[in-house]
Amino acid sequence: MDLKIKIVEKKDLDKFVEVYKSAYKKLGKYAYWREKDIRWYFRWLSKRDANGFFKAEINGEAIAFVACDSNWHGLYENVGEIHEIVVKEEYKGKGIGKKLMEVAEEYLKSKGHKIIELWVGEENHVARKFYEKLGYKATDKFGVWIRMVKKI
Ligand SMILES: CC(C)(COP(=O)(O)OP(=O)(O)OC[C@H]1O[C@@H](n2cnc3c(N)ncnc32)[C@H](O)[C@@H]1OP(=O)(O)O)[C@@H](O)C(=O)NCCC(=O)NCCS
Hints:
The protein is an alpha+beta fold. The chain is built from four helices and seven strands. It has a single domain (3-113), classed as 3-Layer(aba) Sandwich (Aminopeptidase).
């Protein structure tokens, strides 16, 4: 598998719409569904921290991405935030999400962060297991969202 991790460019955002929809197919309540909302969300992620927005490519095709935020103000403490990670449905379970998280953590560490925060849907059991495996711990709940953190 020829996997490359690169910084996201503006031209990638169109292609991410399908990646995002396929990844969230069974998790409707935690995702945007209208195309214009998804595009707005991607633009927002880019603006938050363009250098912390990474994609995974296989044979030149973008099949996954992670969006970090080194400028985020956490609710409780100074954190590096991970806003989003998605892997296209047919590429799940191959270690690509884990690789992107490693890149995200390295990036946030390079920006001086010692704590990483993310929020995950309470019934998104796959993602919760994924994060737990990577060392994240649930610390709080707000509505349907569970806050998870990791010290790096
Ligand atoms: C969560 C997500 C990003 C994981 O990506 P992935 O590339 O499939 O994950 P990986 O293959 O790197 O898995 C890493 C570890 O996570 C765990 N994991 C991944 N998928 C799992 C599943 N379906 N069930 C249980 N554990 C799972 C495994 O322990 C795995 O380690 P192992 O391979 O040593 O067993 C992917 O499922 C996804 O895109 N989900 C939809 C979008 C989403 O929910 N994003 C999170 C928003 S907060």
